[in-house]
Amino acid sequence: MEPTVGDYVVIKAKDQGVQVIGLTRGQDTRFHHMEKLDRNEVLICQFTDHTSAIKIRGKATVMTKYGTVETDQ
User: Fold this and answer.
1) pTM: predicted TM-score of the whole model, two decimal places
2) Concatenated DSSP letters for 17-38?
3) Distance set, CA 71 to CA 10, 38, 57, 60 (Å)
4) What is the pLDDT along the chain (73 residues), one digit of tens a residue?
5) For residues 15, 47, 24 and 72, what is the CA-based torsion angle, rounded to 10 degrees?
6) What's the CA gap between 17 and 57, in Å, rounded?
7) What's the CA gap between 65 and 28, in Å, rounded?
8) N or C terminus: which one in the chain shows less Cβ crowding within 10 Å?
9) Within-domain flag for 23
10) Residue 3 in domain
11) CATH code at position 39
12) Roughly how many angstroms between the first and final C-alpha of the chain, as a whole number?
């Protein structure tokens, strides 16, 4: 089986305490990883065999190859 390795996402926190949560792939979607970012910290994430979705709580800029999104709070 070929590994599922996907796109990168860059997340820049605009406030203190932005939460980035990785969600699993498969029949049951679960949290598998969580990071807390301080203001102006940057996290680079990648979709993998285990990560099918990324949830962001807080004010942040999310950059992908498809464009940039600003979260609302």
Assistant:
1) 0.81
2) TEEEEEEE-SSS--EEEEEEE-
3) 13, 15, 8, 5
4) 555 567 899 999 999 999 999 888 777 777 788 999 999 999 999 888 777 888 999 999 999 999 999 998 6
5) 30
6) 9
7) 28
8) N
9) yes
10) no
11) 2.60.40.50
12) 41
